[in-house]
């Protein structure tokens, strides 16, 4: 729809951070990449679609923040004194940051689609998408929701073993 296009219209590059297993540092890589790009003068957003383990709000010390609504959807949380990193995570939607999310596929997929279409990102040079571990429905939903934008790249995080 037109509204969907509008929310990602100002995003120049989308990078997915993926791995085949958990605990390899996807969220750390996503966070460090965002900070490095910000330090290079880029406008950066992070979309945390790791619904069962949303750690990026804690890593960026904004876990107590709340998201707000505007005419074009959710307003992401802006990180740092310069507000140079925009962040959206399910962590902001939980009553307590350590609450577990126990949802079946359709509900997870609907939230991911909503994150892609209903967040007012504004103008960004890079949107980094931190994904959950493995190769599940969430990954397919994320890629399918982002496919119309054809701005996609990926970083695959691995470990030596």
UniProtKB/TrEMBL annotation:
List the molecular function annotations (GO) for this entry: 4 iron, 4 sulfur cluster binding; ATP binding; ATP-dependent FeS chaperone activity; metal ion binding
Q: Which UniProt keywords apply?
A: 4Fe-4S, ATP-binding, Iron, Iron-sulfur, Metal-binding, Nucleotide-binding
Q: Does the keyword Iron apply?
A: yes
Q: Name one GO cellular component term.
A: cytosol
Q: Name one GO biological process term.
A: iron-sulfur cluster assembly
The cross-references to PROSITE patterns, in alphabetical order and at most eight, read: MRP
Q: Which Pfam families match?
A: ParA
Name of protein: NUBP2 factor
- Species: Malurus elegans
Lineage, highest ranks first: Eukaryota, Metazoa, Chordata, Craniata, Vertebrata
């Amino acid at each position: 729809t037109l509204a969907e296009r509008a929310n990602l219209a100002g995003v120049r590059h989308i990078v997915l951070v993926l791995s085949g297993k958990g605990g390899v540092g996807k969220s750390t890589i996503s966070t460090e990449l965002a900070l490095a790009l910000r330090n290079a003068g880029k406008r950066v957003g992070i979309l945390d679609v790791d619904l069962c383990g949303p750690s990026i709000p804690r890593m960026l010390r904004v876990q107590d923040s709340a998201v707000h609504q505007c005419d074009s959807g959710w307003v992401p949380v802006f990180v740092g004194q310069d507000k140079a990193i925009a962040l959206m995570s399910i962590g902001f939607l939980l009553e307590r940051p350590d609450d577990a999310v126990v949802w079946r596929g359709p509900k997870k997929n609907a939230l991911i689609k909503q994150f892609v279409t209903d967040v007012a990102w504004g103008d960004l040079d890079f949107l980094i998408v931190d994904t959950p571990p493995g190769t599940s429905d969430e990954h397919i939903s994320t890629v399918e929701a982002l496919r119309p934008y054809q701005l996609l790249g990926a970083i695959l995080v691995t470990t030596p073993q």
